[in-house]
């Protein structure tokens, strides 16, 4: 497995306040890396740095060998993003949202319809796609966000608490989709507070506390870890 | 580049077209001003040939030339209003555009896409300008033509079609300054974290822009085509500068 994303000695400050301090990590293809830790620990900031949406104050982030902030122009669609808030336009229908965001990557309407069909079928969204997403449930919106991310066939999938607003079935479907993406060689970084979910789907877990990457806990070679192991690690680290 | 700008503009326009209250208010404002001006000028036209009305007018506005003064005031106010209402509406719409992306959390997804910030801003500006511009061309244009067709407005033909200066101001100057206003207000929207801040910033910017542009476009109509071409060019240059500044200000740092 090769390194898809690499962060080296990342330090990030916002308004003079350090929100990440000398963090280094590598995410390999086909791997699901969980980022856990208390609120304000810098998890989402690290994710935004990996996405290239923030530039580090110090250190470097590379994705597929390119500086992360240049990736949008140099390797279109290499990074897929899913956040707790789906980031869809509520007055547009499901199809209009999908066509709009995919269109920004140059995908034609026909290509979107063709590529999205199996995903929509699987996520049960096909019937709702002609209705404005503002009237959808949060779970449905999140599933469309998942389809939007996977449609571009990304090499790196970044998820920021994707199951925060989902019911148990929705969470399970999200987890399954993430594992499948990893099975196809996609490198996944998952920010979550759901330790049980993280134990179930992550290959490795990194714990961020007070802006520092404290531990990396191997959860085994896809063998499920002992129940509650992450919770113990979490408590010890705190 | 053009395809992406068009797509972003289409998205803005599509969302706007799904807000009935907003559409009613924008359309209503254009319609109201057109109806008021048309009504006033038609009444004044009717009053000119009617001795009873003329006498009543003299009682209301004593002195010679009361009728002509009213016609002039109506034409002057209208030629100022058609520009300022366009700029005002465009400013209000643009002042929410980037903020809306932030509030729906669509902004990170836009910035992750291979879209340059200037394309994003240009698309947004065109998207918010499109609908008001259509209403401006249709309603304000029709009202201007009606006003110009009335004999009582003959002394003020500089401020009405088909005066070349008016045509330049209406077809080039108004749209150019509406692009400028939209770019400025979209930039304010991009810098704002919440609706209140955006409103305050937009009203501050619009106060100066609408008065400046409205005055330049309407008060200088009598100066001829050359001056109006310069005014339009100034608007376009301002729009380009505001677009560039706005795209620079809309930092990629979404967590800023």
Explain what this protein looks like in three dimensions.
The complex is a heterodimer of chains A (238) and B (256). Helices cover 35% and strands 27% of the residues of chain A. With 238 residues, chain A is α/β, with parallel strands linked by helices. The two termini of chain A are 32 Å apart. Chain A has helices spanning 43-51, 71-74, 94-103, 109-123, 138-151, 168-183, 195-201, 229-237; strands spanning 3-14, 17-28, 32-36, 58-63, 66-67, 79-83, 156-160, 187-191, 204-209, 212-218. In chain A, strand 7, helix 6 and strand 8 (187-191) form a beta-alpha-beta unit. With 256 residues, chain B is mainly alpha-helical. Chain B has one domain (2-251). Chain B has ten helices and no strands. Chain B has helices spanning 2-17, 20-48, 51-60, 66-94, 97-103, 107-112, 117-149, 164-191, 195-219, 225-249. Mean pLDDT of chain B is 92; it is low at 252-256.
Radius of gyration of chain B: 21 Å
Largest sheet of chain B: none
> Gyration radius of chain A, to the nearest Å?
18 Å
Percent range for β-strand residues of chain A: 25-35%
Number of separate structural domains of chain B: 1
Mean pLDDT of chain A: 87
| Structural class by sheet pairing and helices of chain B | mainly alpha
Termini separation of chain A comes to 32 Å
Q: Give, in spatial order, the strands making up the sheet with the most strands of chain A.
A: 6-7-8-3-9-10
Helix content of chain A: 25-40%
What summary fits the major beta sheet of chain A? 6 strands, mixed
- pLDDT < 50 runs, ≥5 residues of chain B: 252-256
| Strand proportion of chain B | under 5%
End-to-end gap of chain B: 27 Å
Number of E-type strands of chain B: 0
Low-confidence stretches of chain A: none
Oligomer: heterodimer
Total strands of chain A: the figure is 10
Q: What is the N-to-C order of secondary-structure elements of chain B (H for helix, E for strand)?
A: HHHHHHHHHH
Q: If you average the pLDDT of chain B, what whole number results?
A: 92
Query: What would you call the shape of chain A?
Result: globular
């Amino acid at each position: 497995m090769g390194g898809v994303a690499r962060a080296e000695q990342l330090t990030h400050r916002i308004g003079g306040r350090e929100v990440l301090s000398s963090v280094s990590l590598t995410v390999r293809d086909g791997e699901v890396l969980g980022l856990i830790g208390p609120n304000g620990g810098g998890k989402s900031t690290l994710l935004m740095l990996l996405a290239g949406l923030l530039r580090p104050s110090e250190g470097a982030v590379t994705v597929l060998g390119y500086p992360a902030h240049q990736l949008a122009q140099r390797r279109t669609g290499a990074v897929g993003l899913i956040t707790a808030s789906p980031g869809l336009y509520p007055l547009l229908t499901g199809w209009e949202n999908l066509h709009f965001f995919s269109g920004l990557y140059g995908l034609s309407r026909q290509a979107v319809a063709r590529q999205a069909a199996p995903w929509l079928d699987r996520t049960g969204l096909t019937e709702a796609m002609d209705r404005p997403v503002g009237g959808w449930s949060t779970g449905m919106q999140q599933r469309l966000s998942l389809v939007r991310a996977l449609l571009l066939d990304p090499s790196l999938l970044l998820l920021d608490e994707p199951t925060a607003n989902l019911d148990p079935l929705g969470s399970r479907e999200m987890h399954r989709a993430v594992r499948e993406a990893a099975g196809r060689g996609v490198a996944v970084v998952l920010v979550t507070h759901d330790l049980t979910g993280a134990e179930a789907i992550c290959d490795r877990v990194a714990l961020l506390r007070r802006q520092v990457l404290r531990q990396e806990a191997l959860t085994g070679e896809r063998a499920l870890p002992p129940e509650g192991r992450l919770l113990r690690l979490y408590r010890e680290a705190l | 580049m053009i395809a992406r700008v068009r797509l972003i503009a289409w998205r803005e326009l599509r969302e706007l077209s799904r807000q009935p209250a907003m559409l009613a208010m924008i359309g209503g404002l254009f319609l109201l001003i057109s109806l008021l001006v048309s009504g006033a000028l038609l009444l004044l036209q009717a009053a000119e040939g009617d001795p009873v009305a003329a006498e009543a007018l003299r009682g209301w506005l004593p002195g010679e030339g009361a009728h002509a003064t009213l016609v002039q005031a109506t034409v002057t106010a209208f030629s100022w209003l058609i520009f300022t209402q366009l700029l005002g509406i465009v400013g209000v719409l643009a002042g929410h555009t980037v903020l809306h992306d932030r509030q729906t959390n669509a902004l990170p997804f836009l910035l992750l896409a291979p879209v340059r910030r200037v394309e994003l801003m240009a698309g947004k500006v065109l998207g918010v300008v499109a609908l008001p511009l259509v209403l401006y061309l249709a309603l304000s244009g029709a009202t201007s033509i009606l006003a110009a067709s009335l004999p009582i407005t003959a002394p003020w033909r500089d401020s009405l079609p088909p005066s070349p200066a008016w045509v330049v101001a209406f077809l080039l100057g108004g749209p150019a300054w509406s692009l400028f206003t939209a770019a400025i207000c979209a930039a304010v929207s991009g810098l704002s974290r919440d609706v209140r801040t955006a409103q305050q910033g937009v009203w501050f910017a619009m106060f100066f822009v609408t008065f400046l542009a409205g005055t330049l476009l309407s008060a200088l109509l009598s100066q001829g085509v050359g001056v109006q071409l310069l005014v339009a060019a100034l608007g376009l240059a301002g729009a380009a500068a505001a677009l560039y500044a706005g795209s620079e200000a809309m930092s990629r740092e979404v967590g800023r």
